[in-house]
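Dear Dr. L.,

I hope this message finds you well. Following up on our conversation about the binding site, I have prepared a predicted three-dimensional model of the protein together with iron/sulfur cluster. For your records, I am including the exact sequence and ligand specification that went into the calculation, followed by the structure tokens. Please feel free to forward this to your student if that is useful.
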Amino acid sequence: MTQLKTYSAADLTKISEEMDEQTPQQILRWTVEEFFPELTMACSFGGPSGMVLVDMIAQIEPRVEIFYLDTNFLFPETHETRNRVIERYGVQPIAYKSELTPEDQASRYGEELWLSNPDLCCQLRKVEPNRRALAGKRAWIAGIRRDQAATRSSTPAVQWDEKFGLVKVNPLVHWTDADVWAYIVEHDVPYNPLHDNNYPSLGCTYCTKAVRPGDDPRSGRWQGIDKLECGIHTPGEPIPLARGEENTG
Ligand code: SF4
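The resulting structure of the complex is given below.
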């Protein structure tokens, strides 16, 4: 068991500034030393950043848990990409699902909740399962990059995640889309084949469209709806954990 350490806001700011000068692999090594095994890594199998992180962590500490949010509405290609990761790296990504089946959701909140109330749909199928994935951990790793969206442009490398109550590490925060793809090509990293068909960023089938070449890569998400984020990576009120789910960080 790792010796527990708690961080003040000032500690994390200082660490984050130092980490901003480091490579993603250096940031990941620090994260593993500090938090493993109370550490988990998110990979959606629907974006290139997560694939880079899986490749890097497999070389640094392959026992780090990897999780993804199976909303029940993922593209078949996303499941295929997960399977290729299992084959390539010998890891077993853990799926977290909504406690409501799609049928339960439709009967409780109405058909096509992703159109009538997409924030609630994301809350039920992404944010709440993400909370369960992080329960009991001291830190999590995410593939957020500053160049992905204006909403992400000031993301620190290391931060206290107020919403989920643990440390969040973003090792690729200072990388660009070009950096990510250069790494994928150089290391022959598996990636979602829909990226080759004008889907640079993939979420659920109902809320993801192909984009035109040159468009904002995230413009295919929630098209026609005033929504840019699912709610996992945006500030918000802390989400209380259930009994027995205390985080340890
Ligand atoms: S991305 Fe769309 S379908 Fe998926 S959980 Fe959010 S609103 Fe629902």
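In brief: The longest helix spans residues 118-134.

With kind regards,
A. P.
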